[in-house]
Amino acid sequence: MVSSKEISIEVVVLGSGTSVGVPMIGCDCPVCHSDDPRDHRLRPSLLVRFAGYEVLIDTGPDLRQQALRAGMQRLDAVLYTHSHADHILGIDDIRPFNFLAQRGIPIHGSQETLDCIRRTFAYAFDSRPSQSSRPRLEPQPINGKPIDIHGLHFQPIPVVHGNLTCHGFRFGNIAYLTDFSAIPDRSLCMLRNLDIVFLDALRHKPHPMHSTVEASLHLVEVLHPKRAYFTHVSHDLSHALTEETLPPNTHLAYDGLTLHSPWVLQETEAAG
């Protein structure tokens, strides 16, 4: 007989901003000079905590600051949406987690993303002896099937990011989709019956590689999640003013936002 146990999946928004962050260097706009801490946005990343494990989605250039703020003590795996700089350049800060665990960290991404990481961080994959430490990474290519990380399945969800293919991820009744301009119908089918969904919503003005607030509001109407949060937000959007215009179940994400969703794991899965 297979038993099961209910767990709580916790997600922490480590960064809700764009590739340049908010405030942006050299900008004098009201949002960049806002006193509202929700307008201070580091580069995009999500921390997933469950059953004592911790998984990152993306390692942006602000990873050290984000990990310290979130009190991270371990890292069990990293999932990559794609290989743009604001999603991978913090990879060297995986080293302390290698020190703590005394092992390599699995990193999951498309073959294209993993190839880019190998080129960008060639020193991390150099087998020659070194007097300095380097990240110990274990690349695992995404093949479209769910990724089993200690019993929790992360389903890769292909999305369109301009002329690129990017991946979102569904785990339990939560989905995280950042950096997209469109979601194919076959991917929309994987986003039903969600408790929480995170959606790219860069600004109101159209962008060739990102969703707008209006387009993502339409997606919320199509998907009917219990709660929706917009992320990858630019300095065009004031948190407080934008919140006033959104429906009751839809919000702007902000750095440090922490949410929970219940999920039932089969005992055989949890033992992994």
Task: Quickly list its features.
19% helix, alpha/beta, 272 residues, Metallo-beta-lactamase, Chain A
- Under CATH, the topology is which? Metallo-beta-lactamase, Chain A
Oligomer classification: single chain
**Roughly how much helix do the residues carry, as a percent range?**
10-25%
Pairing-aware structural class of the strands and helices?
A: alpha/beta
The total count of strands amounts to 14
Query: Main beta sheet: strand number and arrangement?
Result: 7 strands, mixed
CATH class: Alpha Beta
Radius of gyration: 18 Å
Q: Specify the CATH homologous superfamily.
A: Ribonuclease Z/Hydroxyacylglutathione hydrolase-like
Q: What is the straight-line distance between the termini?
A: 18 Å
How much of the sequence lies in strands comes to 25-35%
Shape field = globular
**Major sheet: arrangement of strands:** 6-5-4-3-2-1-14
CATH architecture: 4-Layer Sandwich
Query: Averaging pLDDT over every residue, what do you get?
Result: 95
